[in-house]
Specification:
Number of domains: 1
Order of helices and strands: HEEEEEEEEEE
Number of helices: 1
Shape: globular
Radius of gyration: 14 Å
Helix content: under 10%
Oligomer: single chain
Length: 132
């Protein structure tokens, strides 16, 4: 009999890593990678309460849906250079050259991060938090 204890792992994380090269680790279930029919890459990221991450890893970007007023998702997404938000404020933690940086993004706005900033370095997104 399988255990009923929640392990807080993102559903389909192994498959997503193989297909999209993003390592989704732990979260509270309120931030999830958006997928299209049959687990395909979605064609848009236009619904409210979504977060869009731009990365050189995949030119299509990564769209995350948010359910609730707060949320948390740990991950490893390399070469991130932009974060777009819809209705929610987002806090992101990135690591570049062994240094960690926190970036706060207001609702309905965008923030350049990593190498898109003057003198910026290639960055790995390690955490998203919806803060309001």
């Amino acid at each position: 009999m399988p255990s009923a204890v929640e392990d807080f792992q993102h559903p389909g994380a192994d498959r997503i890593f193989k297909e999209r090269k993003i390592s989704l680790k732990q979260g509270d279930g309120h931030i999830r990678l958006k997928e299209g029919p049959d687990n395909s890459v979605p064609t848009d990221c236009q619904a409210s309460n979504e977060i869009f991450i731009e990365s050189r890893l995949d030119k299509r970007g990564y769209c995350f849906t948010v359910s609730g007023t707060s949320g948390y998702l740990a991950m490893e997404l390399p070469d991130v250079y932009g974060i777009w938000t819809e209705e929610r404020a987002v806090s992101a933690r990135l690591v570049a050259g062994g240094e960690e940086k926190k970036v706060d993004v207001s609702p309905n706005s965008t923030a350049p991060v990593g190498e898109s900033l003057p003198g910026g370095k290639r960055s790995v997104l390690v955490e998203l938090r919806v803060t309001g």
